[in-house]
Write a structure and sequence with these properties.
Structural class: mainly alpha
Radius of gyration: 18 Å
Number of strands: 3
Oligomer: single chain
Strand content: 5-15%
Length: 119
């Protein structure tokens, strides 16, 4: 699933597409100029790369995603935790929380997620 590994600019581009799809390629150029400060050539270069990775399709100038946002986010999260915390979710949470506190509602939601994913 290496094709799901995105650079920062590729991920920001995908966020624009996910929010706007299906989107006409000319409109996508305008959106990327407004939101990312990109030139037309940059948008089309990244669009081509995302097509080559199998993440997007461009049929009759209409751009839409093949891979949903949650799948890419899950891959990115796993990759980050593996690289930065040697795959330790508890170590990640401890580092993420640091000295911060979370609300009772947030704590309950985290508990529900953990319970739903226990072996």
């Amino acid at each position: 699933m290496e094709n799901l590994k995105l650079s920062e600019s590729e991920y920001r581009f995908m966020l624009v597409v996910w929010k706007s799809e299906p989107v006409e390629s000319g409109q996508l150029v305008k959106l990327c100029a407004d939101k990312l400060g990109w030139k037309k050539s940059t948008t089309y270069t990244v669009l081509r790369k995302m097509q080559e990775k199998g993440l997007l399709k461009n049929e009759n100038t209409i751009v839409s995603t093949i891979v949903p946002k949650d799948k890419v986010q899950a891959y990115e999260s796993e990759y980050f935790i593996e690289r930065a915390f040697q795959g330790s979710l508890p170590q990640f949470l401890a580092s993420f929380l640091g000295g911060k506190t979370i609300s009772a509602r947030q704590a309950e939601e985290i508990k529900r997620l953990i319970d739903a994913h226990k072996e």
